[in-house]
Amino acid sequence: MSSEPSIFFSDVNERQGSFLRRTFLLGGATVLGLAALSTRLGQLQIVQAREYSTLSSNNQFNFRLTPPPRGRIVDRNGVTLAGNRPSFRVLVVRDETRDLDETLDLLGRLLPDTLERRRSIIREVNAAPRFVPVPVKSDLSWEEFARVNVYAPELPGVMADMNEARFYPFGGAFAHVIGYVAKPNDRDIQAYRDRGEEIDPILYHPGFRVGRQGVERTFDEQLRGEPGGQRVEVDARGRVVGEDVGGSRPAVPGQDVVLTLDADIQNRALEVFGEEAGGAVVMDIRNGDVLAMVSAPSFDPNLFVSGVPSRIYRALADYERKPLLDKAIYGTFPPGSTFKMTTALALLDAGIDPSERVVCTGGYRYGNRTFRCWKAGGHGPQDMHNAIKNSCDTYFYHLCNRAGVDRIARVAESLGFGHTYEIGIAGQSAGIVPSTRWKREYTEATRWEDDPNWYPGETLSVAIGQGALAVNALQLAVMTSRLANGRKAIMPRLVKSVGGVERPSGAAVPDLPFSREHLDIVRNGMAAVANDVTGTAYRNSQLGLGDILMAGKTGTAQSRDYRAGESRGPRNAIWNRRDHALFVAFAPHDAPRYAVALIIQHAPVGGSADAAPRAREIMKVALLKDPDMRSRIERPLPPPPAAEATGEEPDNFGAASTPPAATQSAAPAQTAAPQPAAPSQEGPQ
Q1: What are the phi and psi torsion angles at 85 (to 5°)?
Q2: How far apart are CA 401 and CA 464, in angstroms?
Q3: How does the protein's chain sit in the membrane according to the entry (predicted)?
Q4: How much is the average pLDDT of 18-47?
Q5: C-alpha closest to that of 392 among 48, 684, 635
Q6: Using an 8 Å Cβ cutoff, are 64 and 229 in contact?
Q7: Cα end-to-end distance, the chain, whole Å
Q8: Can you tell me whether residue 257 is helix, strand or coil?
Q9: Is 592 found in the same domain as 443?
Q10: In the predicted model, is pLDDT for residue 111 greater than 70?
């Protein structure tokens, strides 16, 4: 007989007790859970109600930064040189697109040129913060703007709007002075970290721009302004559904920067260069205001605002005439014969009589080398006045070591060479003013040569503006302004005011360390250069403005070493093997007001033929824009003075005076023509 297993409880109460324990445990846990939940709900609803209400509001409303309008840069007459203009643009919000690649493909059909920038667009979109619109293309035409708006419903995450873009109305005329703006990059972010400062959130905004060169860079903080922001209402996906006007904050525009430049003079200065390369500076010799500062060839800074294509940038960077280089303040050149006024002042400072004569037979023999004068047949007897007028190299070869290179260097520094100036533009070159100390330090620093001693033969090259001498156009303009002013060591001023606050004048400076008599001798020689019919620049220095005349000095400087007997090259020689042409001048010569310095890099001919006529045209605009000069030009010419009827010249400042007779014994003169040797350090004038 089989038996089946059975479960037996010894007591009915035992079975009931087990059930009650389970019920009690489950019930207790439920009560505890409900109690904890009630407590937490009470804490959230009562204790932390305000805190979570704020967080909820923040989730509902976002504060989005908006870049401020950048401050304007204007010239001395209020003409806008850098401003802002409305610009249509199309933007993409990464988090609102289903497929970024597909969206860009569709945009490429509407805007074909975006396909060329596809890779950079994807990089910018991926780097942008969430829900921040990223510009895909700026400066849309009205047709492009309308086309994008028509298809916008079919392009999720794509929008078109209007913003303000930086604009340079004169293109390349002010490119090197003003600079340009561009998007912030990693170096800008790192600069904040290096200074230990908190990174400004506006730097991450894709529509924000920072100054890159020139005035835009130097005064970037003042031009930036203060960013504003919109308090917008967003849905659960972060999309904008409305704006809280009361919570929004308007952006504060940047401060305006007023420059001393004159747009008309600046434009004319760039125009006269044509296809040539070089730099030019115009200064008011009374207060140091820079009226024009041009580098040629130039470039259009508008190309850089939205990002210049790499092929265009490479074309600019690789062009041999270097349009991206500021040749007015950074590029340095030998000054050539424009330096002879400096040497003349050093000779006068050394006690040399300006009437002392040196016979120029076409060169000067020193040691085993003959230093040629630019005029092969020689100039004959020359005193200081005629040596400046005729740009006679031999005169300065013969006398320069009686002054010495250190005295010449000291005078050069007093006239403005070897310095940089606080004009609101970084990247200036101080150039080189050779001296015994300079050679010693240069030798120790470079080990280019083992002999740190200065030799008198090296002074001959420096005396005529060659050798190691290197200057820029701004320094030449400062030299000319100081000579013309005759009293003050005028300093250049480029920025007139920032945010309405006036900057110091360039006339608040010490006096020049030269006597009036010595300055008059040099300036009379410059007046003869431009107004004596035998002067090296007479033909190309006539202004044609009534009785207003210029005083100036030509220069032609070697750009390379020439072998013995080698020709300086024809007009169609290879560009980078030509000499440089220079011209400095001030006007009117009887009451100086404006100074100009102009350098043509690798000019076709020389200072008289290439640089002087261009400087004359720039000077004419400066004079014609001056009300006092215009009234002087328009008034009737006075009758000729009695002195002219007798053939005598008036003894006034700036006149091309007759060379004084030799009242003292002349210096030992050369009577025999030198043997053929090394070529001149100075080219034809």
Answers
A1: -135, 155
A2: 12
A3: Single-pass membrane protein
A4: 75
A5: 684
A6: yes
A7: 143
A8: strand
A9: yes
A10: yes
Residue 248 identity (one-letter amino acid): S
664 assigned to some structural domain: no
Note the pLDDT tens digit of each residue in 60-87.
556 667 888 999 999 999 999 999 998 8
Can you tell me the distance from the alpha carbon of 135 to that of 434, in angstroms, rounded to the nearest whole number?
53
pLDDT at 274: 93
CA distance 589 to 655: 8
Three-state DSSP class for residue 449: coil
Dig out the tokens for 673 from the structure. Answer: 């023509």
The CATH number of whichever domain residue 305 belongs to comes to: 3.40.710.10
Predicted local distance difference test score (pLDDT) of residue 16: 64
DSSP β-ladder status, 134-138 and 277-284: unpaired
CA distance 498 to 184: 23
Contacts 24+ apart (CB under 8 A), 268-272: 268/292, 268/617, 268/618, 268/621, 269/294, 269/618, 270/172, 270/173, 270/294, 270/296, 270/298, 272/614, 272/617, 272/618
Domain that holds residue 131: 69-253
Is residue 40 domain-resident?
no
**534-572 residue pLDDT tens:** 999 999 999 999 999 999 999 998 887 766 666 565 566
The DSSP 8-state label assigned to residue 545 in this structure reads: B
Q: CB within 8 A of 119, min separation 6: which ones?
A: none
Cis peptide before 492 (omega within 30 of 0): no
- CB count within 10 Å of CB 406 equals 16
What is d(CA 553, CA 560) in angstroms, rounded to the nearest whole number? Answer: 22
Q: Tens digit of pLDDT for each residue in 336-371?
A: 999 999 999 999 999 999 999 999 999 999 988 889
Query: Into how many domains does the chain fold?
Result: 2
The residue type at 98: R
Residues 187 and 293 in one domain: no
Q: Can you give 96-146 as a three-state secondary structure string?
A: HCCCHHHHHHHHHHHCHHHHHHHHHHHHHHHHCCCCCCEEEEECCCHHHHH
In this prediction, residue 655 carries a pLDDT of 36
Same domain, 213 and 300: no
Backbone phi, psi, residue 66, to 5°: -125, 130
173/285 same-domain check: no
Residue partners of 618: CB distance under 8 A and separation at least 6: 265, 268, 269, 272, 280, 282, 292, 596, 598
- Alpha helices, DSSP H, located in 486-611: 516-531
In the numeric block, which tokens belong to residue 332? Answer: 């340095």
Residue 606 lies in a domain: yes
Last residue of a domain, one of 235, 253, 271: 253
For residue 501, being part of any structural domain is answered with yes
| Residue at a domain's end among 192, 226, 253 | 253
Is the confidence at residue 209, as pLDDT, over 50? yes
